[in-house]
Amino acid sequence: MFLTQEEIRELTGLAYNKRQVTWLAERGYKFEITVAGVPKVLRAHLEERLGGMANKKHQEQPLDFSNSKYFG
């Protein structure tokens, strides 16, 4: 559901929560901050941003060769 703290560290390249929050905000990531100051990012949001959902949608659409001079 959420990225682990280690995954957020890997994504941002930063170890400190406050700097991670700044990094995420500057890049437009959606996240929440816990009472302890830890940023929480939904795994689905990261996958969507990095193309996981977009690639699935793209693959589901059939190719249209009707206007191609090589097919049809």
Written description of the protein model:
There is one protein chain. By secondary structure, this protein is mainly α. It has a domain at 5-51. The chain is 47% helix and 6% strand. It has four helices and two strands, in the order ααββαα. The protein has a two-stranded antiparallel ribbon with strand order 1-2. The chain is elongated, with a radius of gyration of 19 Å. The model has no long low-confidence stretch (mean pLDDT 85).
List key phrases describing it.
72 residues; mainly alpha; two-stranded antiparallel ribbon; 2 strands; 47% helix; 6% strand
Poorly predicted runs are: none
Widest beta sheet: strand line-up? 1-2
Task: Give the biggest beta sheet.
Answer: 2 strands, antiparallel
Coarse shape: elongated
Estimated share of beta-strand residues: 5-15%
Helicity range: 40-55%
Output the structural class: mainly alpha
Helix and strand pattern? HHEEHH
Give the C-alpha Rg: 19 Å
What do the pLDDT scores average to?
85
End-to-end Cα distance: 47 Å
Annotation field: number of helices:
4
Work out the number of β strands. Answer: 2
Topology of helices and strands:
Layout: H1 5-12, H2 17-26, E1 32-33, E2 39-40, H3 43-49, H4 52-60
Antiparallel strand pairs: 1-2
Short characterization:
The protein is mainly alpha-helical and 72 residues long.
